[in-house]
UniProtKB/TrEMBL annotation:
Transmembrane regions: 20-41, 61-83, 90-109, 115-139, 174-193, 222-241, 253-274, 280-299
Family matches, as InterPro entries: Gate_dom
UniProt keyword annotations, A-Z: Membrane, Transmembrane, Transmembrane helix
UniProt keyword Membrane present: yes
Nucleoside transporter/FeoB GTPase Gate domain segment(s): 19-103, 177-266
Name of the protein: Nucleoside recognition protein
Length: 318
C-alpha cells in the first residue's frame, strides 16, 4: 500500500530533482536559443561540419553532443530543443547521447570500483559514433522536421532583441515543463520501489541474467540492478559498496562496468528523450542489445585468455 509518506517523499524527490535539472536545462536552452540569432552557430557549423557529416548530422549538432558528453543528458536536450533538426537527426543524437553522456562524473565512478578510465570512455564514445554511423548508413527515412514533445515545434522568428529574449524564455520554460511531467512520476515510482523493498527481490530475479553475462550470479545482481535503474551516478553508492563488501573479482568488475556503461538508468535515460518526439522503444532496444552483445563477447574472450594462459603456464611447468 502506498502511504502518505511515500507520496510525500516521492513528490519532494521530484521537486528536488526538477530544481537540479531546471538549473541546467533552463540556462542551456536559453543561451543556445539566443545564439541561434547570432553568428556563433554558423561558426560552430563551419568547424564541425566535416565530422558531423560523416555521421549524418548538421554542424550545429556538435553543441548538444558536446554538452551531453561533458555535462549530462538534460543539458544536451536543452540544446536540442533550441535547434531545427529532422527526426533522423534527433534519433541519431539520442542514440549517441544514450551511450555517452556525463563522461566526467560517470567515469570517476567506474574508477572508484577499480576500472581503468580509458575502458568506459573508449567503449562509450566508440559505441556512440559507431551507432550513429550505422544508423545514418542504413536508415533512409526520418527526413521530416522533428516535433518536440506534445506540441509542434514553433516557427517564430522574432526580429527584435526583446522578442528574441522572450522567445528564448518561453522555449526554456517549455523544455522544463516537458521534463517535469516525466520526472515526477519517475521519482514517485522509485520511492515506491524503495518503500516496498522491491530492489532486493528483483535482484534475485536477475541472477539468471548475471549468469548469461558471465558474472558471478550471487554477488553482482544488486550492483547490476542499481546501475540499471538508478544509473552510474545515482547508483554509485550501491555499486561501490557492493564491490567492496562482496570482494568482486577484477573480471566481475570489468564485465559489470562494460555492461553498465552501455546500458544504465534505462528507465530514466529512456523516458527523458520522450520530449524530443522520437520512438524511445527503439532507443532502448538498441542500447540494451549492444550492452548484452559486448559484455557476453568480452566474457568469452576473457575466459579464453585465462584458459590459454593457464595452459601455457602448466606447459612451462612440465
Amino acid at each position: 500500500m502506498i502511504t502518505k509518506e511515500t507520496w510525500k517523499k516521492g513528490i519532494l524527490s521530484g521537486v528536488k530533482t526538477t530544481w537540479v535539472l531546471g538549473k541546467v536545462i533552463f540556462p542551456i536552452t536559453f543561451i543556445v536559443t539566443i545564439l541561434n540569432f547570432t553568428p556563433v552557430i554558423h561558426w560552430v557549423v563551419r568547424i564541425f561540419y566535416p565530422l558531423m557529416k560523416w555521421i549524418g548530422l548538421p554542424g550545429e549538432a556538435a553543441i548538444p553532443l558536446a554538452l551531453g558528453y561533458l555535462l549530462n543528458l538534460y543539458a544536451a536536450i536543452g540544446a536540442i530543443l533550441s535547434l531545427h533538426l529532422t527526426v533522423k537527426h534527433v534519433f541519431i543524437l539520442a542514440v549517441m547521447l544514450s551511450f555517452a553522456h556525463n563522461l566526467l562524473v560517470e567515469t570517476a565512478v567506474a574508477k572508484k570500483i577499480g576500472v581503468h578510465a580509458i575502458v568506459p570512455i573508449g567503449i562509450r564514445v566508440g559505441l556512440s559514433f559507431i551507432a550513429a554511423f550505422l544508423i545514418n548508413l542504413f536508415w533512409h527515412g526520418g527526413g521530416e522536421a522533428a516535433q518536440y514533445g506534445l506540441v509542434a515545434s514553433t516557427t517564430q522568428n522574432p526580429e527584435t532583441w526583446t522578442g528574441i529574449v522572450l522567445f528564448a524564455i518561453e522555449k526554456s520554460a517549455l523544455g522544463i515543463w516537458q521534463i517535469v511531467i516525466i520526472v515526477f512520476p519517475l521519482m514517485l515510482a522509485i520511492q515506491v520501489l524503495k518503500d516496498f523493498h522491491a530492489i532486493e527481490t528483483i535482484s534475485k530475479w536477475l541472477e539468471p541474467l548475471t549468469r548469461i553475462l558471465g558474472l558471478s550470479s550471487g554477488k553482482t545482481s544488486v550492483p547490476l540492478l542499481a546501475g540499471l535503474i538508478f544509473g552510474l551516478a545515482y547508483g554509485a553508492g550501491v555499486i561501490i559498496e557492493s564491490a567492496k563488501e562482496e570482494n568482486l573479482s577484477k573480471r566481475d568488475l570489468y564485465l559489470l562496468s562494460i555492461f553498465l556503461v552501455a546500458s544504465h538508468a534505462v528507465i530514466e535515460d529512456t523516458l527523458i528523450f520522450v520530449p524530443l518526439g522520437i520512438n524511445v522503444l527503439y532507443l532502448l532496444l538498441i542500447r540494451v542489445s549492444v550492452a548484452f552483445l559486448i559484455t557476453i563477447l568480452t566474457a568469452k574472450v576473457w575466459q579464453r585468455i585465462i584458459v590459454h594462459t593457464d595452459f601455457v603456464v602448466k606447459g612451462e611447468a612440465k
